[in-house]
Amino acid sequence: MSRVVDRAGTWIGWALFADLLSAFTLTFGYMFSKPVTMQYPDKEKWLPYSRYRGHHFLKRDEEGEIKCVACELCARICPCDCIEVVPYEDEKGNRHPAKFEIDTARCLFCGLCEDACPADAIALGQQYEFSSFSSRDLVIGRDDLLGKPGKAMTGGGVVAARLNTEQDVLVETSEPHGYNWWRNIRRT
Amino acid sequence: MELLFALGLIAIKIALLIAMLLLLPLPLTWLERKIAGHMQQRMGPMRVGWHGLLQPVADGIKLLTKEDHIPAEADRFLFKLAPILALAPPFVVFVAIPFGETVSVLNAEITLYVSNLNVALLFVFAVIGLEVYGVIFGGWAANSKYAVLGSLRTCAQMISYEIPMGFAVIGVVMLAQSMSLVDIVRAQSDLWNIVYQPIGFFVFFVAGLAEAQRIPFDLAEAEGDLGAGFHTEYSGIRFALFMVSEYVIVLLVSVLSVILFFGGWNGILIPLPPLLWFALKVAFFIYVFMWFRFTLPRYRYDQLMAIGWKVLLPLSMANIIITGIAFT
Predict the structure, then answer these.
(1) How many angstroms separate the CA of residue A136 from the nearest CA in chain B?
(2) How many structural domains compose chain A?
């Protein structure tokens, strides 16, 4: 009996386009819901988490000396062979890199150099905006690497931002604390 | 002098009409992309102009400056002819479409239509049927399997859907006792035809969707299985002409739905200017077209044929019989 009722109900629903109507109400509802788009370069910017693997940076120790001991382990482990290290010895007899170049055009940001480093000197930081018109500009030297931003302290979330076209492709952010990007995602 | 004045008036009207029809696809593409975006929780175009309002202009410039490529194996004459054949009939049809009764400009009563044909409805259906030639020639001339398949589908689709569409409006003609679109609208000044002709409207609108080759009946394009259907090989301005033709047909079906079933420029409840009422109703139907497009999936080819011949045709015939029994 119930099966007959079900079948009759299905047929009535089919004849009155109940399935189409529910589809139209759904799309109409979505039409007026908040978009989930992050307007990245123009209005908003996502802050990376602390474990994000962005642009490399070199660390200094407490005395301001570069931590790197030029052991070249990072260059050895690098799967795409993009690190080039030339060591020198200073007057105290410590090894340091005279030349430390990373070809970020070839780097795949695996983070193996960070794992391999015995002196905790190199790590992958939070910067991800370093596109360029020339692949030659993507070879980053020792002094530039020392100046790159380190690991993110806070992460996740979206902050207000604005694209500054005069200054490369860097996106300027304003407030430190953003909103949770997931708030616009409908989870039913 | 009088004749010259009348001729000048017609020339101005035609110029305005052509300008409107050529420019209207610009806001419509923007609207379509915006609606598509928001229905998918995206934003649509945002970066060119305020909320992407200038995006259609950018697209137009892009299409104009692109290479106008003709495939080596194509039939060059037909390939060049097809976009024009697809574009001309929808423009010609608008000669017979009224947008309102009269407005007085500088103490002169000016009618809001180019001509009040007494067989306007017949003219509309006869001319719009020619649009399919552009699509068929385009697919055939490109000498590509996807384009030909798209054209073949269009051919069958047009034949199957012109018939129920033509039958669906017979009920309207019976009620108005006239084929003139102005008379049909005048006959609806008390009560709109949608009240008497719900089945007729349903059949007309579904067939109109198929006529405009929009989802769920866009078998001719079917980007999922045919690349881009009949205009796979077209690029640049010729592709743009096909797109303009598609949007003009969307506009045409919306306008016809309003004129035939929703009282044309007759308003209800709120006393707005008739032209504004007309524009609002047409805008609503254009929105419905886009709403359908981003809600429904595409029908399979055999389903399309089955709907046309087994559902719409009997329904439209039943509509004629019911109208005949009830209102004469």
Answers:
(1) 30
(2) 3
A98 and A160 share a domain? no
Q: How many Cα neighbours within 13 Å face the side chain of B74?
A: 24
The DSSP line for B210-224 is HHTT-TTS-TTT-HH
Q: Is A47 helix (H, G, I), strand (E, B) or coil?
A: coil
Spell out which residues of chain A touch residue B294, defining contact as CB-CB under 8 Å. 27
ipTM field: 0.77
Interface list for chain A against chain B, based on CB atoms closer than 8 Å:
20, 23-24, 26-28, 30-37, 39, 42, 184, 186
Nearest to A39 among B40, B46, B296 (CB): B46
* Cβ proximity of B162 and B129 under 8 Å: yes
B124 contacts B131 by C-beta, under 8 angstroms: no
B41 → chain A, closest CA residue: A35
For residue range A79-121, list pLDDT tens digits in order: 999 999 999 998 888 889 999 999 999 999 999 999 999 988 9
Per DSSP, what are the bridge partners of residue B203? none
* A156 lies in the same domain as A142: no
- Shared-domain flag, residues A70 and A43: no
Alpha-carbon span B295 to B169, nearest angstrom: 27
